[in-house]
Amino acid sequence: MTERITGHTELIGLIATPIRHSLSPTMHNEAFAKLGLDYAYLAFEVGNDELPDAIKGIKALGLRGSNVSMPNKQAVIPYLDHLSPAAEMVGAVNTIVNDQGVLTGHITDGTGFMSGLKQSDVNIVGEKMTICGAGGAATAICIQAALDGVKEIAIFNRQDAFYENAARTVKMINEKTDCKATLFDLDNQDALRKEIAESAIFVNATGVGMKPLQNQSLITDSTMLRPELVVADVVYVPSETKLLALAKEQGCKTVNGLGMMLWQGAAAFEMWTGQEMPVDYIRELLF
């Protein structure tokens, strides 16, 4: 067996909770091995309370960088030295790059989502999208979709701590792109039904569908879905969420979160290593 860990191995982390289900360690470590790179990628259970110490640890231990997932994507920003233009616009970070103690936050979720749709032969340019969620991933998806030419976006979220962020996203899209964005309360099911009926794609960009909510779906009335509708979920474990199962029953084309995970990871991989991830090879392992 080829030696994988040496005294020179560069460490990259993943800080989130829950995170033990993640396929990111498999994806990155297999890509490192394929290219013969002396890197290792490990997942760490880190929530908002542990986050300040975790970021100090990235600097103190000299990690090359880290991925960031829920619930830390927005909370991590005050602890970083710089933000990329995209991360600043989105207001969230999913990738940290450590350049000799200087930590820069990036966001690759939006490009990962759009690339995942393209991989699944789904083109939503010029179309309308309805999306549930207002966290880091949802915001990145909305902004990237608007920049890529989606005509209209209806955003649904409960009146919680993220609702203000959704309002900010709508304002930014309407001011800085040619896309029209509108915000709705997720409790308004009549509005949700209407917007989905007018859309080419419905996206769940929340954690509903993954542990511990794996048996739940934001859509409980499957008559909201029609065969011509594409239904996408950012959740990839399980690979078929309750939402996607309901959509399949209605004859919809479905897209799970594996493609988004793969392509957002490929973008981060190149930032850390300076090399392109062997995407086709990794896709065969994961799909």
From TrEMBL:
InterPro entries given in the database record: Aminoacid_DH-like_N_sf, NAD(P)-bd_dom_sf, SDH_C, Shikimate_DH, Shikimate_DH-bd_N, Shikimate_DH_fam
GO terms assigned for molecular function: NADP binding; quinate 3-dehydrogenase (NAD+) activity; shikimate 3-dehydrogenase (NAD+) activity; shikimate 3-dehydrogenase (NADP+) activity
GO annotation (BP), single: aromatic amino acid family biosynthetic process
Complexes and interactors: Homodimer.
Active site: 73 (proton acceptor)
Protein name (database record): Shikimate dehydrogenase (NADP(+))
Positions annotated to bind NADP(+): 133-137, 234, 257
Keyword check for NADP: yes
Pfam families: SDH_C (PF18317), Shikimate_dh_N (PF08501)
Primary gene name: aroE
Keyword presence, Amino-acid biosynthesis: yes
EC number: 1.1.1.25
Pathways involved: Metabolic intermediate biosynthesis; chorismate biosynthesis; chorismate from D-erythrose 4-phosphate and phosphoenolpyruvate: step 4/7; Aromatic compound metabolism; 3,4-dihydroxybenzoate biosynthesis; 3-dehydroquinate from D-quinate (NAD(+) route)
Gene3D superfamilies: Leucine Dehydrogenase, chain A, domain 1, NAD(P)-binding Rossmann-like Domain
Biological source species: Isobaculum melis
Catalytic activity, reaction form: shikimate + NADP(+) = 3-dehydroshikimate + NADPH + H(+); L-quinate + NAD(+) = 3-dehydroquinate + NADH + H(+); shikimate + NAD(+) = 3-dehydroshikimate + NADH + H(+)
EC class of the enzyme, as a word: oxidoreductase
Domain of life the protein comes from: Bacteria
CDD domains: NAD_bind_Shikimate_DH
UniProt keyword annotations, A-Z: Amino-acid biosynthesis, Aromatic amino acid biosynthesis, NADP, Oxidoreductase
Family designation: Belongs to the shikimate dehydrogenase family.
Domain Shikimate dehydrogenase substrate binding N-terminal: 14-96
